[in-house]
Structures are given as structure tokens and as C-alpha cells.
Amino acid sequence: MTFGRILTLTGCVVLISTGSFAQQMSDADYCQQLSSLYRMFSRAQTANAVAAAAMNECDKGNFQVGIARLEEILNGRRIPLPPRG
After folding, report:
1. Which residues of the chain have pLDDT under 70?
2. Which stretch is the leader sequence (predicted)?
């Protein structure tokens, strides 16, 4: 991962975390954030069927499955997860 990407990611995590201190983030919002984070860092890579299935689970309202799979993928790529608030 390049320094620019790390710096951008750090800025995104800081911005996300400062706006969420007042309330707990819903599963739907968290699932959406994880999906966005995955998309941001996978643009140059080939499609990942597991990630696509996880995002589909989020779209269907099956947040626990979607969140677990997306967190696993992002952790595997050493991408810091956003705080839940």
C-alpha cells in the first residue's frame, strides 16, 4: 500500500470517527461503510466474489453476515476498520 493511500485512509477513519461519537452506528450504516471502504481500496484489483456476496447480504438486510465477511476481507488486506461509534 502506498503512503498516499495510507494517509487517505487515516484521514477517512478520523473523519468517520469524529462524526459518530454522539450515537451508535446502525448495522445498516456500518455495513455500508465497510462496503464503501472495500470499494475504495479494491479499484485496481480483480473482483472478489466473496466481497460481492457480502455486499449483497448487506443490501438484503442480512447485516451480521455481510459485516462479518467484509471485516474479514478488510482485515486480511490490513485495512483499518472504521469505528462503530
Report:
1. 1-22, 44, 85
2. 1-22
